[in-house]
């Protein structure tokens, strides 16, 4: 009898495992095919070989690029080198990248592992760069002041908080104020794997300021990129494994109200909800994560590899 019970439980477990495996593969879009969509004039950005996971372009055309992310189970072409922040001036004819020097005595450069980034420009035109960092695979936000003349970043502060345990991306709404995505609920590596595999959708978004830290949205199946509309009224959150982009209304007290969900589907039909401007099967770019536009040009970044600059 005990053996029968054990076998039944084993059978049930295997069935559950198989069901979850199928849905896990669908969530990852593991067997999705990429039909190429080409742009007429694309060039790989010289000097980016080990990732450009996130980037942001200032209205002046200066682009910050986060490069060299090391993440469990993700390939790194420079495993022994710290990550870096690159600067690219998109006003140049054939723009190249320059590594920004980091100054400030309290910053440990050797463990720098930059992920999502965001800028905030003050009333006096001071540009702050906020960077998600994973020193020793932990999560912090590093606050820098951009010094354009010196082409450097002055490190001002490291922000850590118990509600910021698994940071992916941030969007700054003040010099020390931001919304951030936590892409997992658990910190433990083993529990994180199960959380993802079972599709628990416990990932969440936090508002941080020096005086208030609060979960503002939750229930995501891997909350990933986050951004804000140019008028500052709406916050967009990418839900990676559900293939959705959520649009939230931002209120004066920083709370978020869900407005609508854009599903990334029917992309190649007559009436797409989203237009695909560029697609490629991995021979040029692998694992693209981010793209932004400046004066008719498109800059595309990748998790661990190169970056591409195209005319739209
Ligand atoms: Ca970002």
Automatic annotation (TrEMBL):
One of its GO terms (biological process) is response to toxic substance. Its cofactor is Ca(2+). Binds 2 calcium ions per subunit. Ca(2+) 2 binds at residues 54, 117, 169. GO terms for molecular function: acyl-L-homoserine-lactone lactonohydrolase activity; aryldialkylphosphatase activity; arylesterase activity; metal ion binding. Residues 1-15 form the signal peptide. Gene3D superfamilies: TolB, C-terminal domain. Glycans are attached at residues 253, 281. Glycosylated. The keyword Lyase does not apply. Pfam families: Arylesterase. Belongs to the paraoxonase family. Capable of hydrolyzing lactones and a number of aromatic carboxylic acid esters. This is Paraoxonase. It comes from Panthera pardus (Leopard).
């Amino acid at each position: 009898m005990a053996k029968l019970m054990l076998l039944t439980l084993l059978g049930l477990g295997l069935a559950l495992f198989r069901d979850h495996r199928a849905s896990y593969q669908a969530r990852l879009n593991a067997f999705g095919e990429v039909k190429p969509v080409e742009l007429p004039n694309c060039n790989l950005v010289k000097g980016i070989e080990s990732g450009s996971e996130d980037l942001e372009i200032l209205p002046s055309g200066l682009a910050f690029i986060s490069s060299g992310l090391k993440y469990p189970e993700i390939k790194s072409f420079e495993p022994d080198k710290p990550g870096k922040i690159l600067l690219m001036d998109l006003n140049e004819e054939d723009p190249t990248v320059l590594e920004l020097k980091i100054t400030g005595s309290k910053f440990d450069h050797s463990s720098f592992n930059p992920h999502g980034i965001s800028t905030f420009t003050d009333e006096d035109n001071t540009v702050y760069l906020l960077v998600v960092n994973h020193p020793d695979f932990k999560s912090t936000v590093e606050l820098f002041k951009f010094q354009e003349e010196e082409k450097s970043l002055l490190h001002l502060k490291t922000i850590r908080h118990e509600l910021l345990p698994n940071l992916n991306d941030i969007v700054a709404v003040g010099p020390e104020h931001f919304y951030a995505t936590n892409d997992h609920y658990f910190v433990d590596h083993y529990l994180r794997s199960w959380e993802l595999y079972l599709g628990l959708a416990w990932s969440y978004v936090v508002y941080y300021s020096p005086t208030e830290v609060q979960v503002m949205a939750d229930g995501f199946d891997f909350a990933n990129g986050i951004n804000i509309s140019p008028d500052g009224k709406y916050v967009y959150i990418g839900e990676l494994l559900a293939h959705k982009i959520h649009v939230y209304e931002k209120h004066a007290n920083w709370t978020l109200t869900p407005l609508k969900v854009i599903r990334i589907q029917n992309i190649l039909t007559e009436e797409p909800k989203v237009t695909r401007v560029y697609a490629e099967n991995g021979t040029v770019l692998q694992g693209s994560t981010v793209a932004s536009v400046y004066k008719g040009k498109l800059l595309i970044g990748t998790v661990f590899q190169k970056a591409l600059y195209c005319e739209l």
